[in-house]
């Protein structure tokens, strides 16, 4: 199986030369709950929810059945000029659940795409095109945050700031304006996360004073910069951003692709700041982790800005599989499970268990930071366990920890030297205990070899 794979497949986010010697390649036969089961029968706890997509466990029977039902009825239809029940019902549902801010017109229209990056492209293009339709063609710029991530396509990459993904392609990318990240890990000694977030917001205020008139939108990941290393910020920053965007007539795009659907404790991360974005991107957990789908939620004002006699003023963006019925049926069932199983309440308890298990690891010598936002918990590893001494890149501490954890039956895929827990919501106490014990063993193993 591995030889056949390597003969024909080119894997994502992988230096293929590292397979299979440096980096094991693990064939998976099936999944059940929080477990992945290998071809050899070995079981792995999926502590990263299969790249943050899975919500309720693998092969969740209700979602599997919903997809099968839909497949027997209508698998796909062009969404230009045609409609179908799952697309409409899902849009109704998402809009009803979307963050609300008193006194602000609600998000009221849904545009579908088929993956997160494509959803980000949709939001960026909508913001730009809206101003153009208004005769404000000078608004061509986007503001994004340092250390942010919004996907891999050329437009999404342009507003991302992770050098590993971006640097090579920089000559191809539209220029974005990057504002300092409110990431609490960057706070100075003695500075609280709130104070640091306020300081980052002050810098954003200055940037908007200079560039507001030429900016169409600001894009950010609310609460947690996930691909940037699960770096977290205080919600006060989001409140400030909302005010600043309003003051400068700049749209606020909330990329909730990773943090949405209960990951940070609330259904959407924006709720923790009591703010409502003008555009909101959803994907990853949207279908419970079964099928690729993205949804971009927009305000009525944005939608209205495209109504015109001219076709060029319309938003002509399209993907062949826009609003695929199978994916929409999966997403509708996933939303139903939130209610049926009381997921958000359950997650509050699970997150508390994660907090206490992580506290047991806090004193390991190489841990510089333990941070948590709901169902996301991260350990930042450094040489001396302080922020000043990151490991050298070539020590590959994260990789060593990853391999050790895999040997112990846990998928703990790091981001550099940051290990994180982002388990499916069905994870139980026994599995969390395994996760914590494995994390301890993996950290001890990786840091001892790297020292
Ligand atoms: C994963 C991710 C994306 C991109 O989604 P894909 O489906 O992988 O293209 C965009 N934004 C954020 C915040 C993400 O975590």
UniProtKB/TrEMBL annotation:
Family annotation (InterPro entries): Aminotrans_3 (IPR005814), Aminotrans_3_PPA_site (IPR049704), BioA (IPR005815), PyrdxlP-dep_Trfase (IPR015424), PyrdxlP-dep_Trfase_major (IPR015421), PyrdxlP-dep_Trfase_small (IPR015422)
Pathway: Cofactor biosynthesis; biotin biosynthesis; 7,8-diaminononanoate from 8-amino-7-oxononanoate (SAM route): step 1/1
Site feature Participates in the substrate recognition with KAPA and in a stacking interaction with the adenine ring of SAM, where: 13
Positions with a binding annotation for substrate: 51, 149, 284, 318, 413
Quaternary assembly: Homodimer.
Function as written in the Swiss-Prot or TrEMBL entry: Catalyzes the transfer of the alpha-amino group from S-adenosyl-L-methionine (SAM) to 7-keto-8-aminopelargonic acid (KAPA) to form 7,8-diaminopelargonic acid (DAPA). It is the only aminotransferase known to utilize SAM as an amino donor.
Protein's recorded name: Adenosylmethionine-8-amino-7-oxononanoate aminotransferase
Organism in which the protein naturally occurs: Noviluteimonas lactosilytica
